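Exercise: predict the fold of this chain.
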Amino acid sequence: MRIINKKPLLLALFSAIAVIANAQKLPNVQQISLRAPISIKIDGKTTDWGDQFQAFNHSIDAFYTIANDDNNLYLIVQAKDEAVAKKIIGGGIVLSITPAKNKFEHGAGVGPLITNKGRLGISSAYMQFMEYADSKTKSKQTDSLWSIMNKELTNESKEMVVGGIKGIDNVISVYNNYGIKTALLFDRTGALNFELTIPLKYLNNATNNQPKFFYNLMIRGMSINAKVVKSKTGEAATVTDVPIGLTTRKSSDMELLMSNTDFWSEYTLAKK
């Protein structure tokens, strides 16, 4: 009789339960102003933040914290859901700071830019990583794929998109002199972390020079390559082609992958 090792399955179940329980304890949007950790480094790691988050937003299905010091605004986002992580890689994530809620006019936005080559390579390796992570063969394969994912993230996300900031181009290098920084990184569990900082001086127009402002966090939907073809009978049909690396194992996730998800909230700069 074949004996099935249930320990990995139980560990995966308990881990999923822990994530759900933690999310349920947190508010949907951050409720407090927060000073950023001292000597924070924008590297996509959550250790500077004590591996803790201030909110779990159900519109984007991700954890996040927003904070500031005297000179900069900071953001950390963590996506533990496979579909949400793939959506960030395939569609992008953008933080917008605005003077009025539900209005992007006069606002400023920043987000990472991943090359098309990188999106496919990262998502393909991530899909394999998650398959191994769900099995009891979790070992060298996951370590190797984890390294590949993060190497691709580093090599293929060397630019960022910037909007609404006077004097700064729409696309700039991550090695810029403006002090605007972004970082994407997978942790060992397969969760995708996004970290960002932007000097407050660039947000003066978007905040009307006030300590309180609105912010929008959006995970963009992935676009589908579509083309029209004609059959031998002359009838036209639209063919959609989603590269294998960007698909998910659950068809119910496809609607989520293709649509923008976002939320609005407000933040007041924390004082010393």
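Check your answer against the key: Residues 40 and 47 are 10 Å apart (CA to CA).
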